[in-house]
């Protein structure tokens, strides 16, 4: 869940930064064109901002401004994990464990267990990114709550207000509806919950008129008010305001977007003025402007809710509205073409992503699996993995780009196009893992370099041949006391039978249960301490017998555990250090439960 939250937060941050660039382009266009850009097109430019904030993906373009202003986009939490340079053979061992269920039940060498422990610890420590993600989420929920409560409260109050039945006012109201060709049902409400004429509601719109306004305005002025408010309905402005408010809750930390929203609302009012003016005679334009001025002088302080739009605005915008009204002209074909060109230009520059570097480079077949091509300039470094299930192993490293911090999209596409399937595992930390026909590759990035490591697993036939040549034989591992405890424990799985046993003895019981195929006993020896349980007993029972390891494999890994040394690292954690049959050092992790009894902490990877 936390990884999904941080992924979403990173996408929001990236989108917000790109939206800021688009806002600057819109402001520049408005400054350069001034009154040449007609009101409807000036307002329409803000739809590009809404698209930028909504779309999870935009097409790549050579004209994109982000080719020269790169904003890095992260793909997954794995790419943003803790940066570390692991011992490659140890990673190879861990990857075999992660993708091969049979081996996942077996412990590997000391380096492999150490890496697995480190990667498991990553989610336990809260990073700065996770803290910021939580703060962002709290802000989103809080702000969205405020917006909803404010609109719901006003809606509840308005439901108790009377509708206007004055025949003169209703006649003007119906005339304006016909002039704008509106078929929707609109309620005309008298209320003192607003100080100036206001439209409220996107689905069931209501035009709100205070009693003071009805008394102060004549029929002609009321017509101007109705035409303006109905223009909001005609243009679906309330729905647009709601959408923008929801997007702003996601980007509440960005002051530039809040300022852009304020300017969008100002442009929205002017666009409605423009539409209203198309329904009145040219000689009435002066009277329309006087109506706006009178409303501002006498009935100011319009409400600023997501679900509302008011005819009056602030004094700062009044001059701009009056100038537009005075210079209004119906002949707008020339300027409509200009508006379209501006939208296309801004879209091409700021509503697209940077062109990815898809230039093909010369490749060569990998030494482990020829099906996978690596760049010719990739440096090969062979390694040796101690895990007996690894047949061959190699590592390549090459420079992809300066300061690269995540695996390039084009490279991931090349991997998938070659038939490699990604392994969805949280065990590996900061890397991407793929598998094909028994070969595993994993990719990481660091300081502008891509590292690709590759290994080939031993096949079942090869594994059987190796086992036939081995002189490892099953043997009795338990002492008389341990055998007695083991016999009693498997009857009822009561942990009190284990009370007083040393951690090494508990581990030996676990191994014996594996040898006896007592899977319920094996699971009962796992820790149930909170924070360490990885799966349920039902999940454990679903593992097929073929994936649990043979007796030879179990003994090869655990045979010498009784001669190991227990190292306690905290009040409830420790490990048994011993030498496996392969000659490598291994760690067997143990956890003390709340009842004071040591249990096994290792569990297969899901």
Features:
606 residues, alpha+beta, Zincin-like, 6-stranded antiparallel beta sheet, 22 helices, elongated
Explain this structure to me?
The chain has 606 residues and is an alpha+beta fold. It has four domains: 2-73 and 128-135 and 350-354, no CATH class; 82-123 and 357-458, no CATH class; 150-344, Zincin-like, CATH 3.30.2010.10; 480-600. Helix content is 47%, strand content 14%. It contains 22 helices and 18 strands. It has a six-stranded antiparallel β-sheet, with helices on one face. It has a four-stranded mixed β-sheet with strand order 2-4-3-5. A hairpin with a 4-residue loop joins β15 (565-568) and β16. It is elongated and about 110 Å long. The relative contact order is 0.12. The model is unreliable at 74-87, 97-124 and 467-475 (pLDDT under 50).
């Amino acid at each position: 869940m936390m990884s999904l939250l941080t992924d979403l937060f990173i996408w929001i941050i990236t989108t917000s930064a790109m939206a800021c660039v688009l806002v600057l382009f819109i402001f520049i266009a408005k400054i350069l064109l001034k009154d040449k850009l007609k009101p409807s097109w000036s307002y329409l430019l803000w739809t590009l901002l809404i698209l930028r904030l909504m779309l999870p993906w935009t097409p790549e373009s050579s004209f994109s401004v982000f080719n020269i202003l790169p904003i890095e986009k992260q793909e997954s939490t794995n790419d943003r994990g803790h940066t570390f340079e692991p011992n490659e053979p140890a990673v190879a061992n861990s990857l075999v464990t992660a993708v091969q269920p049979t081996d996942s039940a077996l412990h590997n060498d000391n380096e492999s267990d150490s890496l697995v422990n480190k990667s498991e610890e990553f989610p336990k420590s809260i990073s700065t990114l996770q803290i910021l993600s939580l703060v962002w989420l709290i802000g989103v929920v809080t702000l969205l709550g405020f917006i909803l409560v404010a609109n719901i409260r006003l809606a509840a109050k308005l439901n108790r207000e009377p509708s206007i039945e004055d025949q003169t006012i209703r006649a003007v109201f119906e005339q304006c509806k016909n002039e704008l060709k509106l078929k929707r049902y609109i309620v005309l409400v008298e209320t003192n919950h607003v100080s100036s004429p206001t439209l409220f509601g996107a689905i069931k719109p209501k035009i709100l008129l205070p009693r003071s306004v009805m008394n102060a305005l004549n029929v002609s002025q009321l017509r101007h008010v109705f035409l303006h408010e109905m223009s909001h309905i005609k243009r679906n402005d309330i729905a647009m305001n709601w959408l923008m408010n929801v997007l702003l809750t996601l980007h509440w930390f960005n002051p530039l977007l809040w300022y852009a929203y304020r300017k969008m609302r100002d442009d929205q009012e002017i666009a409605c003025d423009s539409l209203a003016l198309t329904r009145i005679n040219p000689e009435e334009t002066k009277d329309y402007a006087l109506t706006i001025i009178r409303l501002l002088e006498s009935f100011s302080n319009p409400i600023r809710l997501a679900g509302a739009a008011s005819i009056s605005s602030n004094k700062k915008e009044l001059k701009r509205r009056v100038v537009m009204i005075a210079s209004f002209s119906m002949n707008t074909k020339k300027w409509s073409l200009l508006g379209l060109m501006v939208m296309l230009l801004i879209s091409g520059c700021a509503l697209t992503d940077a062109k990815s570097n898809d230039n093909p480079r010369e490749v060569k077949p990998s030494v482990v699996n020829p099906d996978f091509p690596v760049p010719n300039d990739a440096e090969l470094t062979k390694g040796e993995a101690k895990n007996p299930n690894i047949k061959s192993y190699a590592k390549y490293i090459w420079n992809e780009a300066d300061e690269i911090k995540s695996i390039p999209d084009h490279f991931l596409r090349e991997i998938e196009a070659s038939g490699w399937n990604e392994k969805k595992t949280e065990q590996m930390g900061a890397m991407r893992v793929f598998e094909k026909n028994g070969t595993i590759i994993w990719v990481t990035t660091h300081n502008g370099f891509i590292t690709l490591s590759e290994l080939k697993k031993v096949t079942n036939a090869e594994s059987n041949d190796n086992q036939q040549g081995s002189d490892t034989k099953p043997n009795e591992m338990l002492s008389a006391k341990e055998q007695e405890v083991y016999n009693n424990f498997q009857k009822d799985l009561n942990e009190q039978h284990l009370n007083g046993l040393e951690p090494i003895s508990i581990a030996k019981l676990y191994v014996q249960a594996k040898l006896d195929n007592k899977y319920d006993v094996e699971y009962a020896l796992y820790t149930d301490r909170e924070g360490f349980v990885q799966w349920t007993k039902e999940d454990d029972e679903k593992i097929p017998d073929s994936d649990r390891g043979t007796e030879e494999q179990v003994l090869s890994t655990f045979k010498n555990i009784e001669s190991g040394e227990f190292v306690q690292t905290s009040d409830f954690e420790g490990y048994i250090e011993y030498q496996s049959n392969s000659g490598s050092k291994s760690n067997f992790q143990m956890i003390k439960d709340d009842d004071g009894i040591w249990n096994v902490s290792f569990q297969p990877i899901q």
